Amino acid sequence: MTRAIDLAQRGRGSVEPNPMVGCVVVKNGKCISEGFHERFGCAHAEVNAISKLSAADVEGSTVYVTLEPCAHFGKTPPCVDLLLRSKPSRVVIGLQDPFPEVAGRGIHQLREAGIDVLVGVNADACERLLAPYLKRLRTGLPWIIAKWAMTLDGRLATHNKDSKWVTNEQSRQHAHRVRSCVDGIMVGVGTLLADDPMLTARAAASGADENLPYALPGNRNPIRIIMDRQARAPFESKLVQSARDQRTLIVCGPNAESRRVDALRDHGCEVVVCSNESSPTMIQELSKILIPAGMTNLLIDGGPRLIGSLIDHQLVDELHIYIAPKIVGGTPTVVPNHGQGVLRMDMANQIENPRIQLIGNDLFVSGLCKYS
Ligand SMILES: NC(=O)c1ccc[n+]([C@@H]2O[C@H](COP(=O)([O-])OP(=O)(O)OC[C@H]3O[C@@H](n4cnc5c(N)ncnc54)[C@H](OP(=O)(O)O)[C@@H]3O)[C@@H](O)[C@H]2O)c1
Prior knowledge:
The protein is α/β, with parallel strands linked by helices. It has helices spanning 2-8, 45-50, 55-58, 79-86, 105-112, 123-129, 131-139, 169-179, 189-195, 238-241, 258-266, 279-290, 304-312, and strands spanning 22-27, 30-36, 62-67, 90-95, 116-119, 143-151, 184-188, 223-227, 248-252, 270-273, 297-300, 318-324, 350-359, 362-370.
């Protein structure tokens, strides 16, 4: 199952909104084939693993798969039918699929046919692998990754808002690889005003580092999203100017000036006017539009006010923090503490099982948020 999980991760950034799935076929104690779901709309992991084998090879084998085999016609036929035809003696499953059209039907059909089915093997690791998919199905919200780059004294920019560049070229390449794996990239209007960014994914195909999370580039071109309560986004910004070429959403509050909202729409931006200005409402109302269209992963690429507010509301799931061995000076402020933050250190939120890695001379700290 551990091998199947490793394989599954190779589909990150290419399979969503489908889940990442890996499959390994074992016979007489030997792995005889393996496969993973490589791209949305293409063959599932079980097909990729089993189609390399003869019928005699699969018969009597054990098939390990990270998620319950599908039992419905989606973009491809049901994997359960393939398994029923192939006659393995045992199917070992990481997790039951909560997708309403599967939800235990695959397991039931295999058992009905007399195949020995074991469910829940390495379930915690499968839950972690599939956390974004599971969150989307269970809550109707995207998996939110907050990323920032800072100096050792916790600065995201200098006092006059210069932030190019905090970290080294390799770290920035890694951040672009993450962008190429997500469906949406979001900043607050403060970052738009300070940096005039394009927010596109420009990941190099080579130079992947297998030791880092998001080791491989995906093939996503994320939707660009600006949190902008008063519709302050400048019409001449690169983002607004390119809105006709790449989907761009401006998320406003109810009091945004309608003249500016209309003008942003005229420039090709989609404008979402929320019913109130709180972060939870804005994220929820945005999700109602983007989740049905398949959004799974949303990357918050700054800046400090937006990230601080989302952390205060416990809306961030995963953190990616790049730390450069530099000191800006001035009064050290640990960022992004632009929301309220907690009152006492013993109330501080934690990163669960943090991974701390070197990227050149930069530190990369990543992990899941565990709120106090
Ligand atoms: N080092 C890094 O990783 C990094 C990354 C990004 C930015 N930066 C730097 O950060 C600086 C900009 O900082 P910033 O704090 O102004 O940027 P920001 O967080 O991108 O923008 C903040 C603004 O977003 C708007 N906003 C809309 N909805 C919000 C919500 N739910 N919660 C919070 N804010 C919301 C607010 O303006 P309204 O009330 O008008 O809507 C707020 O003033 C720049 O110097 C930039 O270079 C650094």
